[in-house]
Amino acid sequence: MGNIRIVGATKRFGDVTAVDGVTLDIAGGEFLVLLGPSGCGKSTLLRAVAGLTPLDEGALELDGRDITHTAPRERDLAMVFQSYALYPHLSVERNIGFPLRARHQSREDIRRKVGEVAATLELSELLQRRPRELSGGQRQRVALGRALVRDPGAFLLDEPLSNLDAKLRASTRYELVELHRRLGTTFVYVTHDQVEAMTMATRIAILDQGRLEQVGTPAEVYDEPASEFVAGFLGSPPMNLFPATVVSRGGELVALAPGIDVPLGRRGELPDTEVVLGIRPEHLRPHDPRPAVTGTVRMLENLGGEEIAHCTVGDVRLCVRGPRPLGLTPGDEAGLAADPGHVHVFHRTTGRRLRWQDGATPAFPPLPAEETHQGVPA
Question: Strand 186-191 and strand 31-35: pairing?
Fold first, then answer.
């Protein structure tokens, strides 16, 4: 239960296409996070699933049933808003039980279900308080309780932690993951915070300008980004990206640019090819006797157990991240190396990740249909 299928979802506001042909399958019981920058269309897509924003094109299904034109209250979905939307004049008990009273359930059933939900969310001692007497985290749990009491087919959560301070966000993330584990219900969660996505999701769907860029587990989207956008969006600091040219040198493929001579660990013959090279800051090693990148250290950031060095390589700025101390000093000429397996190559024009045929032979083939912005990357 709780299987959601989105097919070709498109939503326009005047001349702006907020959601652009998104197709996505959400399995029952998974914790799927819709991730992307502000204005990428993630909240609009969630509201379309909830029935609050009608689609211009496309279809929506819940457990195989077409709900594209079904009224929100009949979709068996529970929405949790960023603002919590609690009734200030009602107690916690009456806030949680409101959906059941709206459905004219008996007082005995309401009291029993509210008690069960309150116990699950550790709200039993707060049932007679008003929202103004609660902390931000407690209000969030009341909002979740009001959704949970309906026993919905899926939960839809729109940036529910954005109003909490950093410490409370961390603890509430843990509570949400534990709640999902106990319930086994589908969660669809919208956020622009990559830490929330990486720590909570079973899968992440990354959007940009209304289009679906990549869908995968946290490890997949981080380790094998399908596009230059995904590579630059995930990570703190994000992946170092710089233009380069792939050439064949003695049968070996190498990426070249000013101050950059990076072996790709592949053999073959290939015409000189303009690409964008990507290396994550934690995958650059300083003090290597055979450096692939040579730059100048401009600044160091002390993060306690780690250190980040900001460097310039020609006109390109890049970061190196590792255990403190890195052994670098501002003004140093730094030689940096990276294993070929940690080097990413992206198409200079489309920004899509370039593949290798047969795992070894050089290949920059035409992008297949599934590698376009209109579909889910392979």
Answer: parallel
The CATH number given to whatever domain includes residue 75 is 3.40.50.300
Label residue 209 exposed, middle or buried (CB < 10 Å: 0-12, 13-18, 19+).
Answer: middle
In tens, the pLDDT along 169-208 reads 787 788 888 888 888 899 999 999 999 999 999 999 999 9
Rg (CA), the chain: 25
Q: What is the number of structural domains in the chain?
A: 2
- Band (pLDDT 50/70/90 cuts) for residue 358 is low
Model pLDDT for residues 338-347, shown as the tens digit of each residue: 998 899 999 8
Confidence of residue 357 (pLDDT cuts 50, 70, 90): low
Same domain, 93 and 164: yes
Does 189 map to a domain? Answer: yes
Q: What is the mean pLDDT of residues 144-166?
A: 83
Q: How far apart are CA 73 and CA 84, in angstroms?
A: 18
CA distances from 288 to 17, 133, 182, 318, 338 (A): 48, 58, 48, 17, 9
Q: What DSSP string runs through 134-180?
A: S-HHHHHHHHHHHHHTT--SEEEEESTTTTS-HHHHHHHHHHHHHHH
For the chain, the first-to-last Cα distance in angstroms comes to 26
